[in-house]
């Protein structure tokens, strides 16, 4: 079979053309069973190995393929759980909506003081806080490490709840009447520490989303949350059109 043709007369680099060609073939489902190796692509497109490596490097960076040293590249599996950006999300609800069973291992659930968190919640440094730390599992595999702080004067009834299989926001509304109505969230891509990787059962080359959230109810800050989510099992989604960019949400 003659090599597939890439343009050598235009201004677009060969590696970029190859990347676009591979994306087109991926979208058509051509590599569902097996993604070609570097040498196979060199022969198929009549380009250098350096050109192939540049194209594959960008596909790896974009999360399209997974390629480890000394191993054949493979198509990255789709995220099991997708979370709309801009929503006051419940990870419990997102996992259930994805059709996966979920439960949590409660690591710590107590009342304590934390001066830094209290400052974020506009409270005095010594104010008692409810602290809940859980390992969240989806389909019996670790998904996230979740740490939440709430003012004890508001959230103390939560101490009677069993958080091994229930959502925090549902219990907060049921037991205290408090419903979160707005907040601010920051998402960072991070490399988990060795201890976090061990808890999440993820490989050394798997990144994670670090999500920090400050939530309010009726004008009062009531929740500070830090969640570390496996990047290979979770995706954040948004929607855009010619009319503009719209963050997705849920009622």
UniProtKB/TrEMBL annotation:
Coiled coil: none annotated. Signal peptide: none annotated. The keyword tRNA-binding does not apply. Keywords: DNA-binding, Transcription, Transcription regulation. This is GntR family transcriptional regulator. Gene3D superfamilies: Chorismate lyase-like, Winged helix-like DNA-binding domain superfamily/Winged helix DNA-binding domain. It comes from Amycolatopsis nalaikhensis. The keyword Transcription regulation applies. Residues 8-78 form the HTH gntR-type domain.
